[in-house]
Amino acid sequence: MKVLVTGGLGYIGSHTTTVLLQNGFDVVIVDNLSNSKVDVLDSIESICKIRPKFFEFDVQDKEKLDALFEEEKPEAVIHFAGFKAVGESCQKPLMYYENNLNSTFAILEMMQKHKFCRNLVFSSSATVYGVPDSVPLTESSPIKDATNPYGQTKIMIEKIIQDFAKVEDINVAILRYFNPIGAHPTGLLGEDPNGLPNNLFPYLNKVAVGALPKLNVFGDDYNTPDGTGVRDYIHVMDLAKGHVLALNKLKENCGLFVCNLGTGKGTSVLGLLKAYEEANNIEIPYSIAPRRDGDIDENYAGTEKAKNELGFVCDYSIVDACKDGYRFQIYSQIVSHIKNQK
Ligand code: WQD
Fold it and tell me: Has residue 47 got a pLDDT over 80?
């Protein structure tokens, strides 16, 4: 099966591409490099010994997207492309609504026109659950108004796709990710955000290699065992595997399928920090800072549906993610040092 991966050079897209290639899928990537680097293509080739076809353009460009569909005739799309920084979305709501919605409209219009493409996997997020009434969060937990425009775009896109699937004979998997962390075990792929990291794990990575002085822990007065925020941290390689399982389910012509992808376990900020220190035998300096607007006390996934209907179970642990994340940081520093020497 030929799969078009939008945003395929990004963090989750690139890891998913490696697992797709290693499972015999034919992959075509489209990415505008707004939050990724073309070097990632070399890393994918080094890992898989296959260099997927890559088209550099914005998914919102319907003319180019149509030409790609005509030329490549993908049977499925995994739609990752979109802006995803919670804080930035609060500062630039129009940019988020325009980019995330228009890129989705473009993909759906292509699927409406090109009937050879009947399968769609959408990269959604646990943020659609808003402030949970209870945990674990299951797929039947209420969808609430998101606390930020980024989350709101995920809620809107889920609804748009579900309404589209009612009138278009397609199979759709909506996957709600919890908190992706870690990196490819080879150290060749990982999370490499431009600028100051918004999320906890990439920030930890930078502190670990001395690129940032310390971690600011946003609040220690939450209603959690150690007072710091609790989240469900899932290894990006497990998340990638979840997409292959979802594509295999779509092959069964399942119609619409909505599923959480998480570990089912919650870890606090200080818990993740300590796991990172122990996994890598290093010390991470930190200080307690004020709460961050929009943060919730805790969330973690109900995993029954993923296990029973996808056959999804996690292979990697938090310790694996901490080791893999740190290894990627070290390797990246070595590579950039060598490049600077030239
Ligand atoms: C996790 C915990 C912070 C940074 C968001 C999106 C979600 C997904 C992941 C895209 C919280 C604390 C963080 C720091 C800290 N996005 N923290 N110091 O907010 O749970 O989820 O990012 O895929 O859709 O909603 O993730 O990593 O930002 O925060 O103490 O420097 O770490 O307060 O408790 P979040 P996060």
Answer: yes
